[in-house]
């Protein structure tokens, strides 16, 4: 079992603490939270050992789970890596791309592993069809949430859209060619609703919409590729695959058949893959433990976390240019 400590005991931090304590792959040593009041409350209520400083926690563990506000990710990760600790770091990886690259470099120099908490990679609706997504050429995502004051200190891109950015980058095997975006600040000081268009060098286009001021929650993605359409509902945890294949010699009179302008016929097949229930946060934490023990690259590496942040920053830069024109 790997000795692990958690930095940050807020809403998500408490979830991580509970799951790490349950896990058979980790030995939860304790946590640190800079809020005296919150740290005392969490320690007394759940019985977790409380450290008095970040340094004290790092000196007593092998793995540091960083669940602090984004602004402190870089310093926490840097301290942990310099002490030879592996790091699990919540998304976004850091506050700036420069910080993310510095963390990547340092981790490589110190021969430690790092994973970024892009939890949707472990959503069972995605994992059920991940291997079926091959060379998508058009992608459409909608991630809409009801208003919640928690998290409004950052743009909706870093709060919500970055989940879909990471998913898209994980399935499109091509460099980003261009990014166009617009956003509107309705309630917050930063955009609350945004749309982005990402074009890849292989011709793939992704259209992303994110909002944190919607009347209902939605987390859907659609992938269009040659002879197939794949739909994922991350919220309801369901997937659907629609395939088009050549019509067999013996046509089924009840089959759904389409004919194009050239006279070619295609038969449509519907498939709803089995989606196995899971705890995505526990899965991502335990997958990181396996990567450490087996000396493998984590499923969501520091490099991938940095790439997602880089695209997110390009989208935010579009917002800033838009603001200058007003």
Automatic annotation (TrEMBL):
Highest classification ranks of the organism: Bacteria, Pseudomonadati, Bacteroidota, Flavobacteriia, Flavobacteriales
Any Pfam family matching the protein: GFO_IDH_MocA
Stretches assigned to the GFO/IDH/MocA-like oxidoreductase domain: 156-216
Record's protein name: Oxidoreductase
Domain named Gfo/Idh/MocA-like oxidoreductase N-terminal: residues: 2-118
Molecular-function GO terms, alphabetical: nucleotide binding
Organism: Polaribacter pacificus
